[in-house]
Design goal:
Pathway: Cofactor biosynthesis; (R)-pantothenate biosynthesis; (R)-pantoate from 3-methyl-2-oxobutanoate: step 1/2. This protein is of the alpha/beta class. The chain has helices at 11-20, 32-41, 52-55, 67-80, 99-113, 127-135, 151-154, 165-179, 191-200, 221-224, 242-258, and strands at 24-28, 45-48, 85-89, 117-121, 140-145, 183-187, 205-208, 216-219. It has two domains: 2-239, TIM Barrel (Alpha-Beta Barrel), CATH 3.20.20.60; 241-271, no CATH class. Bound molecules: 5,10-methenyl-6,7,8-trihydrofolic acid, 3-methyl-2-oxobutanoic acid and magnesium ion.
Length: 271
Amino acid sequence: MADQAVKRVRTRHFQNAKEAGIKITGLTSYDQLTASIFDSAGIDFLLVGDSAGNVVFGHGTTLPVTVDELIPLTRAVAGAVKRAFVVADMPFGSYEISPDEALHTAFRFMKETGAHAVKLEGGVRSAEQIRRIVEAGIPVMAHIGFTPQSEHGLGGHMIQGRGEGAEKLLADARAVEDAGAFAVVLEMVPSGIAAQVTKELRIPTIGVGAGPHVDGQLLVWTDWAGLGNGRVPKFVKQYADLHGVLTDAATAYIADVATESYPAAEHEYPE
Ligand SMILES: Nc1nc(=O)c2c([nH]1)NC[C@@H]1CN(c3ccc(C(=O)N[C@@H](CCC(=O)O)C(=O)O)cc3)CN21
Ligand SMILES: CC(C)C(=O)C(=O)O
Ligand SMILES: [Mg+2]
């Protein structure tokens, strides 16, 4: 019985962590195996990101990803964790039209997946959506700075919040806090402005390429584990070389099968 008493991470733990100066850690996950590994290791939250468009489905951007595609992935992750807080990323085209549309999409994720919160992109422009979802009792993680769903509008993978952009970033940060977001992702912003936003807000800031002076960090797990083809954004630290490990394993397997080294006696069923 005792080991069933793993205390789940909840929104108040994000707030408490900020107040206590304890860093929050997050990774993306899209399947039950990685979710279970990261959860057991003690990660605080898992984001089922629309970055699945890049890393699961092989699109060049997140734009083609649909709610129907993310729901089964999110259900797999939410079903695998004992402690981690699971955030469902709302994809491009599933919340922008109106607060009603945003709430409808958030309801789908909450009812059909077991996620604990939703995330959507945009500051001032998404504030009414955030407010509506929060009023329905669903926690919202906001996402400002570089917002990948707007990459064509922003002109590429551009650092946000520099120069004149600092005021816009601060306005976006204040807007999502006022709208009731429990945390905010700051993506690809200079460390100084991220530090300023972090100091000004009561809610925790989660950095993705925002330097160390934020309340938590988040990375796309396949970048972090070196599973991709080597091209990762500057802000990524690769903690493993899964691309190399799996390449070596596949090469060895192909050679073993060719030479009948695999299967060996221990892999055969007796007559
Ligand atoms: N695998 C993956 N990792 C991510 O971090 C990520 C996704 N996919 N998909 C959704 C968004 C898109 N993001 C990205 C994608 C590319 C860069 C990038 O290549 N940045 C370059 C500089 C800009 C450029 O030349 O395009 C860098 O070196 O930081 C950054 C963020 C972050 N998110
Ligand atoms: C990069 C993070 C913030 C994200 O939105 C995603 O993985 O989709
Ligand atoms: Mg995303």
